[in-house]
Amino acid sequence: MQATTYTGTTPTAIAGIASTKIILPDLVSHCSFDIKINRHRKQATAASKKWLFRGDTNLTLKKRRSFHGLKAGLLTSMCYPDAGYPQLRVCCDFMNYLFNLDNLSDDMDMTGTQTTADVVINSLYHPNTYHTSSRAGRMTKDYWRRLLSTSTRGPQQRFVETFDFFFQAITQQAQDREDGVIPDLESYIALRRDTSGCKPCWALIEYANNLNIPDEIMEHPVIRSLGEAANDLVTWSNDLFSYNVEQSKGDTHNMIPVVMNEQGLDLQSAVDFVGDLCKQSIDRFNDDRINLPSWGAKIDKEVGIYVNGLAHWIVGSLHWSFESERYFGKNGRDVKSTRVVDLLPRRA
């Protein structure tokens, strides 16, 4: 992997130009998919928060408020709008759990990330024989046992394999952070497709909709391309929306500083560059959707539900990003309207 060492220059000044604000690309208008919200949203959200908070002695009032403002239940309900309550609840639990892991991994070194990975992956592969007192392990076993009781084998296997990839990727991310490395764009894209955590969420589309699509069809190049296009949109748009908070902490695991560093662009030009890539990923998804092959009426119906699930993730994640307080605080709707983001000062 070609990379450069990050020497402490703020990401907003990598190209030599200090900035005080950025203008986000208009991704919402570029995405024409319909928004749906699951009718079990309130019930599943309340139950999942209770599950997340239970037994967490380190959960301060500030962290509790942060999770309320996250609105992970809304995201889940927009991304799995047709799921029954038991399936939606499992998806909600995983989403809350994944955000919790993401927050923890931001503060972990490589050793801490690897230790957590060992606990979680062993809990998934050996839910009945692996024993741990770790809270992450207990939570993993809890939602995983519920998923196993109602899921077919294919989604189970894809979930475990892709979650394993997630931990391998965030371990590499932790190593890059320790070494002060900004990867090249190609390497970053490959790594980001796994650090996003989207791939196990795609397996949950199958689970949430009670699908049983054969493995060879899920491995078909067009199906894989659709999943990759959806992953890229969710991931790269997230880099745009999370950039402000991340730059204030000096975090360079984001496509914007990667592009600035590799191509010598100023901040706004890098934002525009990433925005164009996001729009291209939506266009790729639409093109692949038109070119879906046919496998017969029964399988085509299930494949159609799966592809619709990817579309729900694309449009749901875009709109949720402005409803959540994770990226723009309580100003999300104003930012959605104006697309102007005032940059936070760099933290000491």
What does this structure look like?
Pfam families: Terpene_syn_C_2. With 348 residues, this protein is mostly helical. It has a single domain, classed as Orthogonal Bundle (Farnesyl Diphosphate Synthase), CATH 1.10.600.10. 68% of the residues lie in helices and 3% in strands. It contains 16 helices and 4 strands. The strands form 2 sheets. The protein has a two-stranded antiparallel sheet. Helix 2 crosses helix 5 and helix 5 packs antiparallel against helix 7. The protein is globular and about 50 Å long.
* Shape descriptor: globular
**C-alpha-based Rg, rounded:** 20 Å
Oligomer: single chain
**What percent of the residues sit in helical stretches (DSSP H or I)?**
55-70%
Number of strands: 4
CATH architecture: Orthogonal Bundle
Distance between the termini: 31 Å
* N-to-C SSE string, H for helix and E for strand: EEHHHHHHHHEHHHHHHHHE
The tally of structural domains comes to: 1
CATH overall fold name: Farnesyl Diphosphate Synthase
What profile does the largest beta sheet have? 2 strands, antiparallel
Class in CATH? Answer: Mainly Alpha
Q: Beta-strand percentage? A: under 5%
| Helix count, DSSP H or I runs of 4 or more residues | 16
Any idea what the CATH superfamily is called? Farnesyl Diphosphate Synthase
Spatial ordering of strands, largest sheet? 1-3
> Which consecutive residue ranges, at least 5 long each, have pLDDT under 50?
4-17
Structural class: mainly alpha
Average pLDDT, all residues: 90
